[in-house]
Design brief:
With about 210 residues, the protein is an alpha/beta fold. It has helices spanning about 15-20, 55-60, 70-75, 120-125, 160-165, 190-210, and strands spanning about 1-5, 35, 45-50, 65-70, 80-85, 90-95, 110-115, 135, 150-155, 170-175, 180-185. The longest helix is centred in the last third of the chain and has 21 residues, at about 190-210. It is elongated, with a radius of gyration of 19 Å. The protein has 2 domains: about 1-90 and about 180-210, 3-Layer(aba) Sandwich (D-Maltodextrin-Binding Protein, domain 2); about 90-175, 3-Layer(aba) Sandwich (D-Maltodextrin-Binding Protein, domain 2). It has 6 helices and 11 strands. It is about 30% helix and about 30% strand. Bound molecules: adenosine-5'-triphosphate and zinc ion (ZN). Zinc ion (ZN) binds near residues 49, 50 and 51.
């Protein structure tokens, strides 16, 4: 039996459940439950917070997971990725107040930047020789400049309307992300075989959607 961890409730949840269903896998989903078992495939689905999924798969508590690449890379386990799933596309971007002067990344030298992604952002800045002060906050990053916590932010963007609504302008793309399937590195031969079957079905679903 394979254990697949998906986000309990959030932007990944519905597309993750739809993908599993379109693979022909049936299960009763009750949003208050922590897990469900499929009725026609040896699969158990665990419902977790997305941030917990990479660690659970790394430790083998779950065999597989569906999570955003942003969360996977931030957690420090990029090697768990098996394949991209094509949904929940978004980017991690740097933004500054609309009126602030900004010509290049050099302008962030010594600046306070609020983000929920200190690892990804830290590496991006280091690679470009920029030393900034990163302030890690877990939510509502986009209000940080207006409350005086930071002069810039780095956050998830899809349409850009949240940034605009907070008087911010996007100045650099730090990371591009989509939902990915991840797997524990030490699956048994039986589980590997099941994973291959599941991937085969997922790929067929994606081809049929095009
Ligand atoms: P949890 O309660 O599980 O911790 P969360 O609030 O951290 O949830 P969500 O906002 O549901 O997370 O986002 C989950 C993932 O969906 C993000 O990590 C990212 O990969 C993707 N995502 C976030 N915002 C968008 C967006 N606007 N458009 C598309 N995908 C997005
Ligand atoms: Zn989260």
């Amino acid at each position: 039996m394979l254990r697949l961890a998906i986000q309990k409730s959030g932007r990944l949840s519905e597309d993750s459940l739809n993908l599993i269903r379109e693979c022909g896998i049936s299960f009763l989903s009750a949003s208050y439950k922590l897990k469900t078992e499929a009725t026609n495939f040896p699969l158990e689905i665990l419902y977790l917070r997305d941030d917990d999924i990479p660690g659970y798969v790394q430790d083998g508590v779950a065999d597989l997971g569906i999570v955003g690449q942003n969360v996977l890379v931030e957690a420090g386990f990029p090697g768990l990725e098996v394949e991209g799933l094509g949904f929940s596309k978004c980017r991690l971007s740097l933004a500054v107040p609309r009126a602030a002067a900004y010509d290049s990344i050099e302008d962030l030298q010594g600046v306070n930047i609020a983000t929920s992604y200190p690892q990804i952002l830290g590496q991006y800045l280091t690679e470009r020789g920029v030393k900034a002060n990163l302030h890690t906050i877990s939510g509502s990053v986009e209000i940080a400049p207006s409350i005086g916590l930071a002069e810039a932010i780095c956050d998830i963007v899809s349409s850009g309307s949240t940034l605009l609504g907070n008087g911010l302008r996007e100045v650099e793309t730090v990371f591009r992300s989509e939902a990915v399937l991840i797997a524990n590195q030490n699956l048994s031969a039986e589980k590997k075989e099941l994973l291959e079957q599941l991937q085969f079905r997922m790929q067929a679903v994606r081809r049929a959607r095009r």
